[in-house]
Amino acid sequence: MSKQFTYQDVAEHNTKNDMYVVVHDKIYDVTKFVDEHPGGEEVLLDVAGQDATEAFEDVGHSDEARETLAQLEIGALKRQEGDPVPNAGIPGAVSPQAQTGAATGLGVGLYAIIILGGALAYGAYQYMQQ
Ligand code: HEM
C-alpha cells in the first residue's frame, strides 16, 4: 500500500525547493519537476502544497504529462473532515457539490415543467375537439 498523507502533511511542502501537490487524491513530489515544467514554475507555485486537480485538468494536459505525473507519485491522500473538496474538472463528471445542490432541484423542476406542459397541451387539444 502506498504511503498515506493528510492534507496538512502536504500543505507543509509548499515551497519551490520542497513541493508536493495533490491530483485526484494522489500525492506528487514535484520539487525536481518545477524547473522543467513547460507551463512554467509560477503555476506550480500557485498550487504548491494544495489540491492541484482542477488546475491540472483545466489545462488539458497530454497523456505524456500524465505519465510524467505518474512518475512523481509518492503516496495517496488520506481525507479528513474539513479538507477542501477538489473539483476534478473532468467534462461530464459531476462534482459532489453539484450532486447535492441546485442541480438536483433544477432536474426535478424541469420534469415538473415538462409534465405540466404536456398536460396543458392535452387539455387544450381536448377543448379544441369539442
Ligand atoms: C502537477 C504536475 C504537473 C505536470 C507533471 C505537468 C506537466 C506538463 C507537461 C508535460 C506539459 C507540456 C504539455 C503537455 O504535455 O500537456 C505541461 C504544460 C502546461 N502546464 Fe503543466 N503540469 C503539471 C501541473 C500543472 C499545473 C498545476 C498547472 C496550472 C495551471 C499547469 C499548467 C500548464 C500550462 C499552462 C501548460 C502549457 C504550456 C504551454 O504550452 O505553453 N501544469 N505541463
TrEMBL record:
Domain of life: Eukaryota
One of the GO BP terms on file: sterol biosynthetic process
Pfam assignment, any one: Cyt-b5
Matches recorded under InterPro entries: Cyt_B5-like_heme/steroid-bd (IPR001199), Cyt_B5-like_heme/steroid_sf (IPR036400), Cyt_B5_heme-BS (IPR018506), Cytochrome_b5 (IPR050668)
GO molecular function: heme binding; metal ion binding
Entry-linked PROSITE patterns: CYTOCHROME_B5_1, CYTOCHROME_B5_2
Topology with respect to the bilayer: Single-pass membrane protein
Domain Cytochrome b5 heme-binding residues, every copy: 2-78
One Gene Ontology term, aspect cellular component: endoplasmic reticulum membrane
Localization (cell): Endoplasmic reticulum membrane; Microsome membrane
SUPFAM superfamilies: Cytochrome b5-like heme/steroid binding domain
Transmembrane segments: 105-125
Keywords recorded for this protein, A-Z: Electron transport, Endoplasmic reticulum, Heme, Iron, Membrane, Metal-binding, Microsome, Transmembrane, Transmembrane helix, Transport
Family in the record: Belongs to the cytochrome b5 family.
Protein name stated in the entry: Cytochrome b5 heme-binding domain-containing protein
Native species: Thyridium curvatum
